[in-house]
Structure formats: C-alpha cells, structure tokens
Amino acid sequence: MNPGDIIGHRYKIIRSLGEGGMANVYLAYDTVLDRQVSVKVLRLDLRDDPNTKRRFRREAMSATKLNDPHIVGIFDTGEENGLQYMVMQYVQGTDLKAYIKDHYPIALPQVIDIMEQVLSAVEAAHAHGIIHRDLKPQNILIDENKNIKITDFGIAVAVSQNSLTQTNTLMGSVHYLSPEQARGSIATKKSDIYSLGIILYELLTGKVPFEGENAVSIAIKHFREDIPSVRSVNPHIPQPLENVVIRATAKDPIDRYENVKQMADDLKTSLDPARAKEPRLVIHHDDNGETKVLPLNKLPHNRKNPDAGQTSSPQQPPKPKPSFWQRNRRHIIGALILIVVAIVAGCSWWFLLRQVIIPDVEGQTPLQAEQRLKKQSLRVGNITRVHDQNVAKNHIIRMQPGPSTKTRVNSSINLAVSTGVRQLRMGHYVGRDYAETAKMLRQKGFRVHRRMVYSDTIDPGTITKQNYRRGTVVKPNRNIIDFEVSAGKQNIKIPDFTNQDISVVQQFANKHNLQLTTQQKKSKTIATNHVISQTPKAGMTLNHGDTLTVTIANSGNQTKTTNIQINIPFDSNGGQRENRVQVYIRDANHNLTMEYQDITINQETTINVPFTLKNGQTGAYRVVRNGRTIMSATNITG
Fold this sequence. Notes:
The strands form eleven sheets. This protein has a six-stranded antiparallel β-sheet, covered by helices on one side. Strands 29-28-31-32 form a four-stranded antiparallel β-sheet. The protein contains twelve helices and 32 strands. The longest helix has 30 residues, at about 325-355. The chain starts with 5 loop residues before the first strand and ends with a strand. Helix 3 (about 110-125) packs antiparallel against helix 5 (about 190-205), helix 3 (about 110-125) runs antiparallel to helix 8 and helix 5 (about 190-205) runs antiparallel to helix 7 (about 240-250).
C-alpha cells in the first residue's frame, strides 16, 4: 500500500507504521468519521496461505468480542483486491518494549500502574474465554498519557478449542513462553499468567530472564531453569514484589496464581509497608521420579563401618593445636554482630523516626507526585483510579494522608488518580474557541476531532458545528466528539484574464463573490471588451467581498465609469439568519437580464457597483432579495 491509496472506499493510507510476519500496519484517515485509524493488511505473499488467513480472521473475531479500555478496538474488517484487512483504533505512542528501553529504570509505582492496566485487559479477555498466548511488551502499546492497550490477538483462541497446540510447533514469542507451551502442551489461562510474570520481570530489570543462541535453547531454559532473582539486579525492589514474579513464573501451572485477578490483588499491595518483612517465596518442586546423581560418599555401602576393620586401618596422625582465631571465633563473631546491630539500630532510629511534612501533590500526575515526594524522603503507595467530573485525566484527585500533615520518613502516600469523567451531558460549544474547548474535553478523557471549513463571517478557530446536540449524554470510552471549526475566509487565487472577454471576468467575480470594477481604454491590439490589464495581478489572492479591477479595450467611443453605492437592508422575518441577494445592472457591458452579483448577507450591507456608460447613455439596476425585487433604478448617469 502506498500513501494516498484508498481501501474499503473510505480509509486513505497516510504512511506505514510497521511490518510483521503476518501483516503490514498503516496509519490511515477515515474519510467518513474524520479520524485517524490503523489499518492492518495481510501481506501479499500470504494471501493464499489458509493458516495465515485463519489466524488473521481469528484476531479480528477475538478482538471484536472484547470491549475494554485497555484493549485496542476493532472498528471494521473487509477484503480489498483479495487481501484481508482490519481497521483498528490508532494509539499514538510506542510499544512497551521500546518504552522500557528508553525509560529504564522505571519507578516502581509506575511499574505497578502499567501492570494493573495490562492485567485488567487480560482479565477481560479471560472472562470472555479468550487466551492471548502471545503476551509480550511488543504487543502492549502505551500512549503519551501512560495509558495501556493490548493488541495482536493473532494466535489467541477460545478456551474450548483443542487446536491450540500444533505438533512440533511453538506458538508465541519464545522469550515469554510458558514451560508447558515450550513442551508442546495445551496453553491455558495460566500460560498467559506466566507471560505476564516475564513482562513484570522485564519492567523491573530492563531485560528478559533468559537469552540463548537460538529459540530452542531459550525454550529449554524456561522449563529447566529457575527465573533469576529481580532483587539481584536491583536490591531496592521490595520482597513482596519479587514474590509476585516468583509465583507468576512458577514452572508448574498449579503453583501459579489461580487467575489474573488474584495476581492483580497481590501486585496492588506489593509496595505496602505492612508487607515489607515478607520472606522470599520458595516453591517446592517435586522431582516426579527424575534421575538424580548423588555423591559416592552419601551412598550407604560406601560409608565407613565404625566396628569393622579397625586393626587394619593406619594410625591417624595427631591433630594440630588450634589457632587463636579457632579458639575465639565465636566470641569475635558475637562481638562484631553486636557492633553491627548497634550501628543499624542507631541509623534506623535516625532515619525511620524522623518526621517530615507531606507536600501537596493534588492536581499533579503520578510521575510528578513521585518526584515531589521523593525529595521529602517519602514514596508513592497504592494508586487507585476513579472517575472524576472536575480533575483532568491521569491527575491526582486526593492523597492519603493529606497534604501539610506530618509523617515518618519513608512512609507511603496513597493516591487517587482521575480516569476522567464517567459520562458527560454535552454542552453547546458552537461559537466557542476550539483550542480551549478541545483541551477541556480531553482533560475529561474524551477524544476530540475537528474538521476545518471556510467562513466569511466567523473568526478562525471558532466552532461552527458539533456532532452531539446539547444535553446528549456522551461517554469518553465510547464517544468521539467531532467539531467543525472555522478556517476563516478562503483565499481566492486570481487567474490571468489578459485577452479574456469581460463576461469571463464577470462570471469569475460572481462565482467567488467579488466586487468587479471596470475601466475602459482604447487599444489597437486588444479586441473590444477584452481585458488589457488587471488589479491585482495574476497569482495574487483576494477574499470574498474584495474588489477586482480590470481595464478593457473599447473601439474608440468615449465612455465613463461611475461607482454607485447600493444599501441592501437585511430581512430577519421568520427567524432568517441569511438572505440571498442577486444584483442585475444595465450599462455599456451589461443588460438587466445578466446577473452581475450573487451574494449572501446576514446584516444590512452596502455594495459598490461600477457603471460604464457611453455618452448620453443611462444605466439601471435591480436588487432581488430571497426571490423578490426590493429596489431598482433606471436613471443612472455618468
């Protein structure tokens, strides 16, 4: 697909967003709903592959079943020239893989926030009986407001289907593959939980747990080797948070969380100070009859018999005299421990009992709040997301404990963050500034689009039309607000009228609502009533209502041009907002049957009309408003 191509008779391709193994993705413009979308098109070389076409259809069917704010929505599907395509919500941002690379290390409250959104989406999919099977950071999109959306259900399948595993085939990305999938077993909801644990590991450490020379070696590590400790990479990670990784990535599915909600509940409290002393989670593995290698000296028949063979064994050499360290080792170690305990107790007393004033972070983003609290030796606790009518999306509504109170250093401050309004009763925004209105609505969580239209009477940037009437209830997660916005007066490019008949100029002036002024000049080279020169010059621009002046050739008969002002009253009877006015004139170049000007007025308007008259000739005009003649004159003289 190339920029400018139209697919499905409405989606205009703008540019490529990426190429995958199954399909290519493009940014496109929906000409019907005036919005940007993503269009995923099956690759040309795979259009006849039944397995690929089946996966493509499966992705569309899986995603259309799901209506969750954290899952990329499917708007439309179809086929164009034998190629299947689907139209999806366009997320302006990047994928989580690139975000981790650019922003690592990521603050722990933000890690929790990202995972809570991912878990919410997966929980919604599981609730509809859909297993994703290919969860990885590359399939998780994050926009500029840190909102998460999961995409690519290409290998997702309903739980009831038994064809999840193909013989000798690994489905899913190997770095995030569960041990049972690596063995070729059927994927379950707990397989997705394992992948979620690997994603959490990467968010905390900036890397995947296993690397290898090829995909097979990495898959083997997933079902043979334990996941490395995240605290070995970053000792500041709380033990409860590492325990979430350990349980989610347990080798045996029975040891993992029962469901995604259970994992989300555990993750939500992992930064709680009340869990700070929680021990490291140890999952005991059953050997399941595996062959083990034991040291020879542990085998019963190789142990020495204390009652046999004493006479034949050689005499043992005398033991050496113990050193000072050996004799006093316990006392020395005990003394060192007491010294360390005293130092730790003193530091703890200083650093843990000191109190600080909690700064006010209400109205800020969670990231700004974390930085502000960190300066006061405080940290972000639980983040709760709720709807709010007044606070902008992704900004803090309230904090607990409240601002300006005292608390101990290293305490956690719980935050309530706005997700925007749940719903809004639409106001009347026509006549208001678009930039301010769009900013206000976006802060409430809405998507706002605009379409620019030319207007002679409305200032640029002013809203002229809205797609929802005043009083209509609209919801941010369902409704897109569209506005028509004034682009101001349209610039009219003036062509070259040289040697053109005056009638051509008159038609152009009538079409573009321009005032036409004519001057006459004797010429031996230009035909009578044809243009000699013009003002403005060709290529310059005018606006509606401006004056175009042309000099036309005559045959030598003397003429004179006079300008007459005509004051046209406005008729507002019946609530009319506009009047259509047609002006007809008679002079040396026009007769009363020829329309001179056709304009639309919304108030009393004065126009200048030039009359070109020969000696002894009189001019005339007639003004028609809304189909009725309202004024006329027949005695115009030079």
